[in-house]
Amino acid sequence: MGRWLEKIEKGDGDTPRKPPKSPLGALGGEVDGPFSEKNEDNHPVTSTDWLEWIAERCPLVPEDYRHVATGLLRLHPRMQQRLAERYVEEWRAAADDEPTYHKRDNAGRHAANLIITRLKRGAEYV
């Protein structure tokens, strides 16, 4: 038997941990060890974490949740952060530029969702 297997049986050494739960619910692993869902700085790591992060900063309707989630799931985790930050920036900029108070949410939502629509069509990069 190999040394690595002997270490696992004895409980010594670095044993691989189960991966965290998938945002799609496909994996049923425990969140623990090196694959924890949150890093030391408490920055979001998974696409669902980024979705919650966006929702804390700008109001999302159910359609926005679906639209943003599909956009996030297409990207590598590092790119998910860039998309989330850009989404919030665009939302706030468009809402601030709208002079009519009651139209601000829709203006922000429209501008931010255009980023994801263009990304899905391949016309824009994050």
Short description:
This protein is mainly α and about 130 residues long.
Name the descriptors:
126 residues; 56% helix; 2 domains; mainly alpha; 5 helices; single chain; elongated
Assembly category? single chain
What is Rg? 19 Å
Structural class: mainly alpha
* Count of domains: 2
What pattern of helices and strands is seen along the backbone?
HHHHH
Gap from first CA to last CA: 48 Å
Q: Calculate the mean pLDDT score and round it.
A: 77
Catalogue the unreliable spans.
Answer: 25-40
Q: Given the structure, what is the number of helices?
A: 5
Strand residues, percent: under 5%
**Counted beta strands:** 0
What does the overall shape look like? Answer: elongated
Sheet with the most strands?
A: none
Percent range of helical residues = 55-70%
Biased composition (Basic and acidic residues): 1-17
Region (Disordered): 1-44
Topology:
Layout: H1 3-10, H2 47-57, H3 62-73, H4 77-97, H5 104-121
Helix pairs in contact: 2-3, 2-4, 3-5, 4-5
Biased composition (Basic and acidic residues): 1-17
Region (Disordered): 1-44
Protein architecture, described:
- The protein has five helices and no strands.
- The radius of gyration is 19 Å and the shape is elongated.
- It is mainly alpha-helical and 126 residues long.
- It starts with a helix and ends in a 5-residue tail after the last helix.
- Helices cover 56% and strands 0% of the residues.
- It folds into two domains: 1-37, no CATH class; 42-126, no CATH class.
- Residues 1-17 have a biased composition (Basic and acidic residues).
- Residues 1-44 are annotated as: Disordered.
